[in-house]
Design brief:
single chain, about 270 residues, alpha+beta, Thiol Ester Dehydrase, Chain A, eleven-stranded antiparallel sheet, 4 helices, about 15% helix, globular
Length: about 270
């Protein structure tokens, strides 16, 4: 069953340069973003926080479904499955901006692991009276894992890259990204919860953080971006070193065991 959901939300933010500088430091870069500076692609993830009181949080630390934009789907596990972005104009630090969000669709399916719900959020980011960026976020909700069920076999990643960067992540980096994006999902900082409740082998590296590194790599290698799309293939743990790869306009993340972690495609600005 697939249907549109009419829920909408609007938030404003000043896009404080200090937060962007803190993220640059967390990424190991020189903090050179000031008021009026163009924000790198995907840095809008640092802004438009929506703090909720403790009573409106779910067991996983995210806002409880039904208390905000997304309806109660009756499924406890949330994962960011992927997204698409269209860049029209630069967002600049220190300039007031608005985010207009809509639940574009909710789709219920039944997979091998049980019932699933797919939610697509559409965000428009406006600054100085114009739409600068449009983003679609694809989220998936599912049941808790059965501890005796076989794990899905992830796809094998490509090995024909022409460019490669290796990155590793630790609990401090994951905490800093969670803090800077106000992401309360416990799989990124609560190892016991990630292992015992959601069935992961360790702390899970944020999908958006992987996508952020891919977008910065794409900008460095092919120039300003007009579009970028990405899809998660398997979770990456904090104990792993991952390969960030590129061939032409295709980008991907490969795990230490050769599995595909994320795939992406970039369209350069003409």
């Amino acid at each position: 069953m697939k249907h549109a959901h009419p829920a909408t939300d609007t938030q404003s933010d000043q896009l404080d340069p200090a937060r962007a500088q803190a993220f640059q430091i967390a990424l190991g870069q020189a903090p050179d973003i000031g008021a009026g500076s163009v924000l790198p692609p995907f840095y809008h993830q640092l802004y438009f926080w929506s703090p909720q009181p403790a009573n409106d949080l779910g067991r996983d630390g995210h806002p409880r479904l039904g208390a905000g934009l997304i309806p109660d789907l009756g499924l406890p596990r949330r994962m960011w499955a992927g997204g698409r972005l269209g860049f029209a104009h630069d967002l600049c630090a220190g300039v007031p901006a608005e985010r207009h969000s809509t639940v574009e669709s909710v789709e219920h399916k039944h997979g091998r692991s049980g019932p699933l719900a797919f939610v697509t959020l559409r965000h428009e980011f406006r600054q100085q009276g114009r739409v600068c960026l449009t983003e679609w976020q694809d989220l998936v909700y599912r049941q808790d894992p059965s501890h005796d069920a076989p794990r899905p076999v992830p796809p094998v990643a490509r090995t024909d890259e022409t460019d490669l960067r290796e990155l590793s992540f630790d609990s401090i980096q994951l905490f800093r990204y969670s803090a800077l994006t106000f992401n309360g999902h416990r799989i990124h900082y609560d190892r016991d919860y990630a292992r015992d409740v959601e069935g992961y082998d360790g702390l899970v590296v944020h999908g958006p953080l992987l996508a952020q590194h891919l977008m910065l790599m794409a900008r460095d290698l092919i120039g300003p971006l007009a579009q970028f799309s990405y899809r998660a293939a398997s979770p990456l743990m904090d104990s792993e070193t991952a390969s960030f790869c590129r061939r032409d306009t295709d980008f991907w993340v490969r795990g230490h065991d050769g599995r595909a972690v994320m795939t992406a495609n970039a369209v350069p600005m003409l």
